[in-house]
Records
---
Amino acid sequence: MNLFNQVKTLIYKDVLLEWRSKYAINSILLYVVSTVFVCFQSFKSVDAVVWNTLYWIIMLFAAINAMSRSFLQETSNRHLYYYSLVNPKAIILAKIIYNSGLMILMFLIAFLVYSIIFNNPVVNMPVYLISVLLGSISFATVFTMVAGISAKAGHNSTIMAILSFPVIIPLLIVLIHLSQSSMLGEDLDTNLRHIFLLLSINVVTISISLLLFPYLWRD
């Protein structure tokens, strides 16, 4: 099969496995809903800045919990089996695409729950939804790449935290600035540089994953 068909088959495999167990979706939903409810019981009401920052903090830890399991099912025997069938680039691309779809779904559900429990102060909703979309994809690409490296180190969570820290902090700062400007009612043209920066981070992360993962795969 060519690369496109390999990626499509691997995505279908991940979707089928998730649909059978629903472990990741249920665990993330439970985490998000319970965390938002606890925050609501603690603060009752918050201003727009705290509302925005709290949302991204909740989603950061939800993404870490979800993406840390990306390669948990991929045992050494399954790696060897995949090695004889598919291109390693197809594996990492399929993981990134699948995790991006999962994160988009989770971020939108979390935003809906968060807006219902807390009063939604967003003025420019389209720009905020763009930040949510780009943020979910960015978290998925970064943590998928780091999870792939961590999997080769015995699923060491410490390595995952150390490697993701230099990338995720600037990413969070850009996301908070972009979403914060939408809460002030600024239009899309004003935030083009933030959007371009997020897209650039995604392109660089995916490119590094495609270059690095085949070498990790050979070990």
---
Amino acid sequence: MWAYTGRRLLSIIPVLFGISLLVFLFLHLIPGDPAVVLLGERARPEQIEALREKLGLNQPLYTQYFLFLRDLVQGNLGNSIFNLLPVRDQLAGRWPATFELALAAMLVAVALGIPLGILAAVRKNSLVDNSSTIFSLIGVSMPVFWLGLILIYLFAVNLQWLPPSGRIGIDAGNNFKTISGFFILDSILQGRSFGEVVAHLILPALTLGTIPLAILTRITRSAMLEVLSQDYVRTARAKGLNERVVIWRHALKNALLPVVTIIGLQFGTLLGGAILTETIFSWPGIGSWIYEGILNRDYPVVQGGVIFVALVFVLVNLIVDLSYALLDPRIQYR
């Protein structure tokens, strides 16, 4: 397993190289000039050219890319064009918010999607099964931004049960200290504002977790239907084992491989696909940060954010692959 893990880790290098090249080229193909964005459209041409020279934007693209690649190898993501702050420091302050939101959304998807999938498989072609199919189709098809606005309108504006945006309220935030960047953990460590933090997390987590919830429901159902038709399941039932034991101990355990794969893929997608959710709920994470960087033509911010998300996505997939050996002892890595 160690040799396999080492090879997978080495394979990350060309992946990150390819991603860095693609994001660099795509950014420079987007219409707009960072110097014009900073100085405004009324700035004189000589002012714009002077700023472009200061930022190194007047150099050939291949020169800019090699300078970016050189800094990247050294662990330096550069400084933001817009606020001149180091991208690495901004990333360190932003990623806990996105990770916390993605983890909460994934917990919602797993807690609801897997039981629904199992129930739909056990009661195939029943009302429960058909309802889960309709629910999954709606969940996959529903735009995230529309669902987020609907939830805000219902639960924050009309019912006023939950806050509409942010990670914590203004009053609670004045006495709240950020220790780790994970507000749930920080609230537990400080013994305060836990309910406030959870309340702010509910609506974004439900919005972001809808699509993986629908996908997990369908994948769990398909995997369970395939396993329930196997001979060893019929044998277990013939021996008189309790139906719950057959389903949870024998069937579900053998149906987990595709489910775990989808969980890993969806979790990696949530980390990079939370731009709309974070923007709607004013969630200060990587997604909204990258979105602001795109609007401001802040090349270092977008490049650093995309590369970080890609790295996390690859590492999550590696962890999922290694977990297969724990779920199925027949799988061996060489």
---
Amino acid sequence: MSIFARIMIALVAVLHLYIAWFGIFAWQSQGPATFPDLPVSLFEPTSAMAANQGVYNLCIAGGLIWSLWIRDAEWGRKVASGFLLFVATAGLFGALRVSPDIALVQAGPAIIGLLLLWVPVLQQRQRKS
């Protein structure tokens, strides 16, 4: 795994650690300022839902961090790919359902990470054949 792929995976993990913190701990305090189009009265009754989503994001971050510690390069690449695909899928879905900005912020880095993981492997395989 290249250093650039590792950096992108780490950045995506940090983003999801932040999203997890936000959903679990800061939904009611920071949510109204972050989402000014939503009514303030919405944040308290949806705090359990936001915390649940935060836990999912924490699991994504954990999986990405785990992939960086795997010594076997192929296994690490495959684990990272799985978690990056989860992020890209969620980001594209969010872009369609919530805001197009989500594609740039969430799916974009994940897709870049996937390219950094797999383009060198595919190039090397092509050279061998």
